[in-house]
Write a structure and sequence with these properties.
It holds the Pfam family PEP_mutase. This protein is α/β, with parallel strands linked by helices. The chain has 13 helices and eight strands.
Length: 303
Amino acid sequence: MTEVNVNSGHAATRLRRLLAESPIVLAPGVYDGFSARVALELGFNCLYMTGAGTCASKLGQPDLGFATLNDMREHAEMIANLDPSVPLIADADTGYGGPNMVARTVEQYHRSGVAALHIEDQIQTKRCGHLGGKEVVPLDVFVSRFNAAAAARRKLGSDIVLIARTDALQTHGFEDAVKRLKAAVQAGADVAFLEGVTTKEEAGEACRLLSPTPVLLNMVENGATPSWTPAEAKELGFRIIIWPFAAIAPAYDAIRNTYRRIKETGSTGINPEFTPKTLFTIVGLKEAVAVDVAAGGTLYDRV
């Protein structure tokens, strides 16, 4: 890990402290402002903005490289600033181009309040890490992405956490994947992310070989990686867990079932306790009223 700027109030500093002080950091996947509000309501101290969820919710497209830097940065900024005290880890795909674009990505994520971003070694026409047919760039290209990212961070005087993700496990094998992560760490990455790990043996070995660099576990339900509990992940040596599908998968089931009830019965069957005011309270009604009152307003007196 790079040296922490203790005078910084940036969320990245808080994430670095979490990594230093917590046995393991748990970051549920959020795909929009509402799912982020629910996670915040439950008191999670770190969130993860899923790229697949962003593509699906913001663009209505599969995770095949449709999202641009502007799509991802805009979405991340909104989520990160719902509660700036809670660090947000955000997907940054391949960095969206060569070294200049990677540097721009780091700069924009930093200015948007993002605490950490992960950059991968797939080609620009990337795909979800749990789909087949992936292709990765040569090692020197991957390293150049982190040379550029680290240089941009230094220029900004930022604490933003750089996470190196490799998809080479499926294309080049375990040894090459670990070699890539070590090279990225040498270039300035703070955290290692081995995508698509399939066994406890390779997971534990990766954590051992990459130590003392923190290793992130991508817990994609029903994907390439088996489902492990936080206790199991900690025992294997992981320091961060993200759950990209934690919100969007149950949302699909709930929304689809409700729409089907409308077609079949003409009724939603929604819990009567979920009123409009309940929704607005979840997304900040009390805070909005407080701002208006503090400014001398009376517009929301009867809300």
